[in-house]
Amino acid sequence: MVSFCISLFCVTLLCNHDCRYFPLQSFIFKDQRVERIRQLIKSYPDFPKKGINFLDQTVISDCVTLMAEEIKKRFTPNGETIDAIIGLESRGFIFGILLSTFLKVPFVPIRKAGKLPGECVKGTYNLEYGSAAFELQKSALKAGSRVVLIDDVLAIGGTMSAAAKLCKEASLNVLGAGMLLEVANCEGGQRLDELGLKWFSILKLD
């Protein structure tokens, strides 16, 4: 059922480089599944505005399977419990929901400010093209819950680092973060390392 659902989705990855000149490489894995994912990524320069490049990624079952394997290996090597997958709005919702189904754990969204009812924890973050704010419902998870953060792409790391800080403000135990793609020369990985956040990506854009 999960594989069928995955084939219906298409997620757009954001990057501030023209990827026609930056080859995608396998970051962790060296197998045919990664190559299949890499070949499906298409570049759309100057969309939605000039200077921004969108990478169009068709999501397939191999992608979610690889991410689930990495979550288990890196964050729960001894079979520890994951209480929830937290997806970052909006493209992190696609991977997050599918991973939560695959791993059989709840899904909790971090949404843009003003979209969640009730009392929320709020944080701000910088993007390649501006800044924004997002929120997490305080009632969504109990203090101490073990969570994994999921998004589609890691560029400058502003979104993911802000999400990790937001979760800590909500007294959640952040096990780590997972992304499909890392844009290496944006140095987002270094930013997460400095924050002390464990993380991985399936593909790397050099």
From TrEMBL:
It catalyses: AMP + diphosphate = 5-phospho-alpha-D-ribose 1-diphosphate + adenine. Pfam families: Pribosyltran. Its main location: cytoplasm. It comes from the Eukaryota. Pathway: Purine metabolism; AMP biosynthesis via salvage pathway; AMP from adenine: step 1/1. Residues 1-21 form the signal peptide. GO terms for molecular function: adenine binding; adenine phosphoribosyltransferase activity; AMP binding. GO terms for biological process: adenine salvage; AMP salvage; purine ribonucleoside salvage. GO terms for cellular component: cytoplasm. Its EC number is 2.4.2.7. InterPro entries: Ade_phspho_trans, PRTase-like, PRTase_dom, UPRTase/APRTase. It is found in: Cytoplasm. Keywords: Cytoplasm, Glycosyltransferase, Purine salvage, Signal, Transferase. Residues 67-183 form the Phosphoribosyltransferase domain. Belongs to the purine/pyrimidine phosphoribosyltransferase family. Homodimer. Catalyzes a salvage reaction resulting in the formation of AMP, that is energically less costly than de novo synthesis. This is Adenine phosphoribosyltransferase.
